[in-house]
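Render this sequence as a predicted structure.
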Amino acid sequence: MAIAPINVSGQDLNTEAVTVRRGSKASRVKKTLTSPWATAAAIIIAVIWTIPTFGLFVSSFRPPNDIRSTGWWTVFTNPSFTLDNYAEVLFASGASSANLGSYFINSFVIAIPSALFPIVLGAMAAYALAWIPFRGAHWIFIIIFALQIVPLQMALIPLLQIFSQVLGISGTFPAVWVAHTIFGLPLMTFLLHNFIAQIPGDVLEAARVDGANHTQIFFRIILPLSVPALASMAIFQFLWVWNDLLVALVFSGGTVEVAPLTQRLAEMVGNFGRNTHILPAGAFISIIVPLIVFFALQRYFVRGLLAGSTKG
């Protein structure tokens, strides 16, 4: 019985060799990252990274005299705790701690829309740049990428002039929303473009054959497949806006009705630092929301960071 010769081209051999090399390299990297030494290093970095937060938490329960005179680590040798700092921050009236709850509401009103708008607009722009062919798409993408290196401070004064003199929205929530959307849109578009561009083109082509237009493809295919990336970007943007002081301070006009929690924290110290004892309590209250958001949605954040990193 004759055996037909097997035709193996040089290109197939090269492709197989490249695949083997990539697999071996990936296995070596995985082995290195999961080694006991890497695990120990990660634990040490996590502990060092957590120490300031733990110190802030301990200081928030210490009496004012102890906060001013000694470090938080002395609590292990001379323990003394009080809830007066939290009571003063949350319930006392006056210049140092009045209306903290209203600032919490302002931070939510600022952070939620400022996280949603860049995600929605960035996803639309990323889909257009990745799958809708038009003249100048590559140059637009390069410009969007280049906008990430432009310092934020360069746009504050021109944008503030537009809001106050042209649009007349300075000192309002829409001004802060638009500012955060403008500053966050380039990074969102760039990251989402890298993910959306890796979606198999056969899926989109099959949808076009079935008569779907770009709007239907975006809402029925792109968005469901991009949920991990969208969730991770939403968490990232929300945390960035919640902890922001500069943008909100400039475009809110410093008014109590619009100012976020971070602005109140900067004002709580008072003249000559006389209220530094309540700052740890106020700061720890302000980080409760970011901690809850991150730990509650951590799996989506990790999945979104890894989404699109491998193909196949």
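Summary. Residues 100-131 form the longest helix (32 residues). Residues 1-8, 16-20, 308-312 have pLDDT under 50 and may be disordered.
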